[in-house]
Amino acid sequence: MSNQKIRLGIAPIAWTNDDMPELGKENTFEQCISEMALAGFVGTEIGNKYPKDPEILRPYLDSRGLSVASAWFSAFLTTKPYEETETAFITHMNFLHAMGAKVIVVSEQGHSVQGQMKTSVFAEKPVFSEEEWKLLADGLERLGELAQAKGMAIVYHHHMGTGVQTTTEIDRLMTMTDPTKVSLLFDTGHLVFSGEDPIEIYQKYQERIKHIHFKDIREAAAKQVKETNQSFLSAVKSGVFTVPGDGMIDFAPIWHEIEKSGYSGWIVVEAEQDPAKANPFNYAVKARKYIRKITNI
Hints:
By secondary structure, the chain is of the alpha/beta class. It has 11 helices and 11 strands.
């Protein structure tokens, strides 16, 4: 396999947090993308400070050698009429299509507790009813068909504090959806934080994985979050996430599986931290050096 099939990006959430905009409010859009490029990355996902007009955004990225890998989309298929999600999705999809992205990151936010500061991310995570599972699966397949018509794919983001977090929940969603319509995003950090085995998930779904997030976990912080029933946002503030090479995850065996599978697409470094405590540029450089060491990319 040629490593040229894999491109490395980094998410802007290390510079300014989308869920808690007060984290990194002092960091500008231009600083963020300049430091991404300077650290050696060639792609970005979309943050809340990015221009949403492709004609305005494109020159900023082109001059720094950056492409758009994807962007997060919040679906509410279990709690709102399908049409509301579809309308918002089409706008989001058209923007990403104009920016040349091939995948759309989708996460179901119906009943999600990830944005609630006081709600325990483990003890109070949502559990979907039979009807909600069907609404989710059917809705995702319809969104997947819309993406296909644009030559794109939706990649489902299993996520802490949502109804699709655990191995059992990922398995159920994958079983209930058509592989030609619904693909999977593989996020190392969310799997390890939840207590799942990332190697097992990758091996099982490698043919459906079309987007990858490399995120590391600080073991002591993760243990404290669980023991003290902290929320997802509180966990972020306490430093549970970090970049590859700075936490408990050994990415070498994960990379072995990725390389062996012939994966083609983006690997995006994503580590939401408080930039006042974890300088985004310094951590981006640390991640880039570590990834180069284990992958030779």
